[in-house]
Automatic annotation (TrEMBL):
<keyword id="KW-0249">Electron transport</keyword>
<keyword id="KW-0349">Heme</keyword>
<keyword id="KW-0812">Transmembrane</keyword>
<protein>
    <submittedName>
        <fullName>Cytochrome C class I</fullName>
    </submittedName>
</protein>
<keyword id="KW-0479">Metal-binding</keyword>
<dbReference type="Pfam" id="PF13442">
    <property type="entry name" value="Cytochrome_CBB3"/>
</dbReference>
<keyword id="KW-1133">Transmembrane helix</keyword>
<dbReference type="InterPro" id="IPR036909">
    <property type="entry name" value="Cyt_c-like_dom_sf"/>
</dbReference>
<dbReference type="Pfam" id="PF00034">
    <property type="entry name" value="Cytochrom_C"/>
</dbReference>
<feature type="region of interest" description="Disordered">
    <location>
        <begin position="159"/>
        <end position="196"/>
    </location>
</feature>
<dbReference type="GO" id="GO:0009055">
    <property type="term" value="F:electron transfer activity"/>
</dbReference>
<keyword id="KW-0408">Iron</keyword>
<dbReference type="GO" id="GO:0005506">
    <property type="term" value="F:iron ion binding"/>
</dbReference>
<feature type="transmembrane region" description="Helical">
    <location>
        <begin position="14"/>
        <end position="39"/>
    </location>
</feature>
<feature type="domain" description="Cytochrome c">
    <location>
        <begin position="209"/>
        <end position="289"/>
    </location>
</feature>
<dbReference type="InterPro" id="IPR009056">
    <property type="entry name" value="Cyt_c-like_dom"/>
</dbReference>
<feature type="domain" description="Cytochrome c">
    <location>
        <begin position="76"/>
        <end position="156"/>
    </location>
</feature>
Length: 290
């Protein structure tokens, strides 16, 4: 009885076959996921990079070239306004150690009257008090120092007789400041230019200027010089200047002359002004109280 084989009907055989297939499918599914998991655990090997590629990646993006710099040559390309900003502004913008502030008309006028222009020039070249010779920049020439002093007097609205070097950066052969000689025109061309400028200024009939018309035209000036000519840290104060001073500056700007460090901005603004426009602006600006 015990050794008799188990007899299965057709239905049981079919069920057994299906169960076997299901088991086999499950095993294959688990094996597939196990292989994927093991593959994800493997550490990827870095790509081989050639020495040439490495050198390209670490190469510097620029180079520093050192060498001697001719400071005198560089300074020769600067205007008096540039020189002032680079050398003088630290003291003369703030009044440090009693230095006269650039646009202080009374202080500069008093110094000019008490000491004379030649002494002011000599002090700037040789130094005085806390101010070192040439403002601490030995590369500046005598003429550049005279130009800077004249620039500060101009900014303060103080009249003086110094005409300046030919291009405002010390290239002309003017006299030595300590020698006490008055600056003179060195060529006929320079004399003719000075006469032409004087005639142009004289042609401005300031007394015929109309302040009301000048006020209208001054609207384009407010952004830089202020509604009452009070100026800004960058642009000079106009309040307290007389009509002749304003007319003179506008005529020089209109003629394309280098007047100060704002010449590049002022020249195109003055280029189209007529004599009447300049007279109107001059008398209007002269109404500003300091």
């Amino acid at each position: 009885m015990g050794n008799q084989p188990i007899k299965m009907d057709t239905g049981n055989k079919v069920l057994l076959f299906i169960a076997s297939l299901a088991l086999l499918g499950t095993v294959l599914f688990l094996v597939s996921h196990l292989a994927g998991w093991l593959a994800g655990m493997q550490v990827s090997q870095p790509d081989t990079v050639s020495d040439e590629r490495v050198a390209q990646r670490i190469a510097p993006i620029g180079q520093v070239v050192s060498g001697q710099v001719d400071s005198a040559e560089e300074a020769a390309d600067l205007t008096p306004g540039d020189l002032y900003s680079n050398v003088c502004a630290a003291c003369h913008d703030t009044g440090v150690s009693g230095a006269p502030i650039k646009d202080d008309t009374d202080e500069w006028s008093n110094r000019l009257n008490d000491k004379g222009l030649d002494t002011l020039f000599a002090n700037s070249i040789n130094g005085i008090g806390a101010m070192p010779a040439r403002g601490g920049d030995p590369s500046l020439s005598d003429e550049q120092m005279r130009d800077v002093v004249a620039y500060m007097l101009d900014e303060a609205g103080v009249d003086h007789d110094y005409e300046g070097s030919d291009n405002g950066n010390g290239d002309s052969a003017a006299e030595d400041a300590a020698g006490g000689e008055e600056p003179v025109a060195t060529t006929e061309t320079g004399e003719a230019a000075a006469e032409e400028e004087a005639e142009a200024v004289a042609a401005i009939a300031v007394e015929d200027g109309d302040a009301e018309r000048g006020q209208s035209r001054y609207n384009t000036c407010v952004a830089c010089h202020g509604a009452q000519g009070q100026g800004t840290p960058v642009f000079p104060k106009l309040a307290g200047r007389d009509a002749e001073y304003i007319a003179d500056k506008l005529v020089r700007y209109r003629a394309g002359e280098t007047v100060g460090d704002q010449t590049a901005l002022m020249t195109p603004n003055a280029a189209n002004l007529s004599d009447e426009d300049i007279a109107d602006l001059a008398v209007y600006v002269a109404t500003f109280e300091d």
